[in-house]
Specification:
By secondary structure, this protein is α/β, with parallel strands linked by helices. The chain has two domains: 103 residues, Rossmann fold, CATH 3.40.50.170; 108 residues, Rossmann fold, CATH 3.40.50. Helices cover 34% and strands 25% of the residues. The protein contains seven helices and ten strands. The protein has an eight-stranded mixed β-sheet, sandwiched between helices. The protein has a two-stranded antiparallel sheet with strand order 8-9. Strand 2, helix 3 and strand 3 form a beta-alpha-beta unit. The longest helix has 24 residues. The radius of gyration is 17 Å and the shape is globular. The protein starts with 8 loop residues before the first strand and ends with a strand. The relative contact order is 0.14.
Amino acid sequence: MAIDEGRRMRVAFCVSGRGSLFRAAVSQAVTIGIRPVLLVTETKSSAELDAFARDHGLPHVRLDPKPRDAFDRELARVLQEADADLISLTFDRILPAEIVRAHAGRIINVHPALLPAFAGTRGVERTLESGARIGGATVHEVIDEVDAGPIIAQAVVGTIPGESPDDYGRRMYAVLEPMFLTVLRWYAEGRVEHDDAGRVVVRRAVYGTLPVNPTLE
């Protein structure tokens, strides 16, 4: 059931790479109760995202990450002007502390590993190189410390000896996309809360399930 137009949550997306999760969110926006209001890309982002944003009538800014000071200032400006309720990151650039503070509790990040293991770059590759039998993906809130914010949801994916990062990544994406869309819906429905320790708790969610915890809805 779609959420009423007047209640749809405003979401800004910062994307590196192909933007598959972003595209899925835009395609399902009405169903999950969000209103995409901005796409920010950078030099590593797919050129195809320019046309995708244009075709969907979505404001789009492509930023050059160098020099860093100019990048940070422009990113802060466009995010403030977007007046988003939530900022979603599938972004290889670390946000400056000023942006994190200005949008505290309203930024989520997708990380391709089971945090707190393998924080930082090359999450998929480091998972496979470690010989871990279980890997996966994490959606978490963003704080000043990289990949250390409260965990919202995690998906578990078993590893296969000798499997390439690309093949593993494709299997992981099959559970990551529905998890990401579910997380966006939880925020749109106002169900995301924090306990006394600052950990994320989703009201009415079912915990303790696999391969995604909390369970997908």
